[in-house]
Amino acid sequence: MVRVHGNALKHGLTSDEVAYAWENPIRCRQRNGTDDPPLWISVGSLPDGRFAELIGFMDIDGVWCVFHAMVPPTKKFKRELGWR
Description:
It is a single chain. By secondary structure, the protein is of the alpha+beta class. Helices cover 18% and strands 36% of the residues. The chain has one domain. It is built from 2 helices and 5 strands. Strands 1-5-4-3-2 form a 5-stranded mixed sheet, covered by helices on one side. This is Toxin.
């Protein structure tokens, strides 16, 4: 299950698109830092073939919460993932 926060929708994607992209990652990893809970970053595939950059975390109940989603992924974001 994926919970999509309202902030993830401000760049024009729908909740269904964000959830789909989170569940279909091309590349992901835990973000460096001291965030609690730890943040995960991902580039996921959308149903239409576009890629989305995503940031989320697993809540205390074990549910993924995505609070950032944007198309297309920025160069900086892809670099952070080690994907150029």
